[in-house]
Amino acid sequence: MNTSSFLGHEIPERLKKKEFSALSFVEHVLSDIQQRNRQYNIATRTLNQRAIEIARKIDSLIAQGKDPGPLAGIPFGIKDLFDVAGQITTAGSKILAQDTVAKTDATLVERLINAGAIPVAMTNMDEFAYGFATDNAHHGQTLNPHDAQCLAGGSSGGSAAGVAARFFPLSLGSDTNGSIRVPASLCGVWGLRATQGRLPTTGSYPFVHSLDTVGPFADSASSLKLCFEALSASPLQKIDTSTLRFARLGGWFTENMAPEMETAIAQLAKTLKAEHSITVPETERARAAAFLISASEGASLHFEHLKYHAVDFDPAVRDRLFAGALIPTTTIAKAHRFRSWFRRAMHSAFETVDILIAPAVVGPAPRFDQPFININGEMVSARANLGIYTQPLTLAGFPVLTVPIPTQGLPLGAQLIAKPGREDQLLAIGEDLERSGNAKANLLSA
Length: 446
Fold this sequence. Notes:
This protein has about 450 residues and is an alpha+beta fold. It has helices at about 10-15, 20-40, 50-65, 105-115, 155-165, 180-185, 220-230, 260-270, 285-300, 305-310, 315-325, 330-350, 380-385, 390-395, 425-435, and strands at about 45, 75-80, 120-125, 135, 140, 145, 145-150, 170-175, 190-195, 215-220, 245-250, 275-280, 355-360, 370-375, 380, 400-405, 410-420. This is AtzE family amidohydrolase.
């Protein structure tokens, strides 16, 4: 059986037609992950016993003529900051590796399982979700499936790379400053940062309470839609995308793009008939405010660990947390006040449009031996700066769909931004783009 022969959203129907059993399929998936994981360092552990138990239940339901669920038999990966019953939630850290096992599943994990999906692996991440590279001092680097010499992005890099490598069609990630959008772009898969607060974070290890958001990765827009409906516990209404108005985000979001990204964004804008641009003021300050809030809240969350277990941190994460602890409270208060102002400015930007278009990253994935990107003529750290286009949008909390743009080289991704609560519009556009061939996940060939 070849897991590369079909996409995630096709699996439930194939199971119902009894083309194969859920058990035989998931056993193949687990074996495949075991064999190929050493190539990419995507999974930190597999969930064999749990996966097999759930697969057997699905087969039993099908044999009885009962509905096994809308996601029946679809394997999914889980970023290692979501609770999974019987597993230790490490958040990619040595510090939490000896904690007690989780007694229950995180809410989103539970919802996927209840819809018939099968958890198969926990995925690698930047320690405590603080980074854009999935370069973990304890678990190693996750490699980009499209070029093992390149970054997969982070902090949800294992979840994105797992979809791109066809380990699983769906996966869960978190996005505080771009941790879904950056790796989705670099790995060439679909990713959704839901409206802040729309999907429950219960059972996920926090990073920045006031900014944390969760969401899925998928191998197709159709798979992503099915997944989001399960995660949000509600069906999406049908959208007439011909009535939607599009514009490009200008200013900050037109600077520093690599030539291939400029071309890709221009073509996407043309496809969507985005004939003008809208510039949201003070975008650079929005990025700075997101930096400050993240650093200070992250430092506060880990203060006790920093006091007594500083040596056990990933050095890069530890240094950023120490710096965050030194930020004056007056500065943080100003950042939060600015956040409220910027959110209002974002709402104003949508007075004449429904969807805004922006690049997700400056260009293709950087190489490990050259982990830098060009910003304003200077080569700066990719690990700290890959979120140049994602961090400002984080501050507003609007939903963002990462769209994989067809390209001859390494993957590229665009951000489509909608008003709060309008994931239905984003996913409908995604399906339209996929049907027309203007967007497609870049998956390893069968």
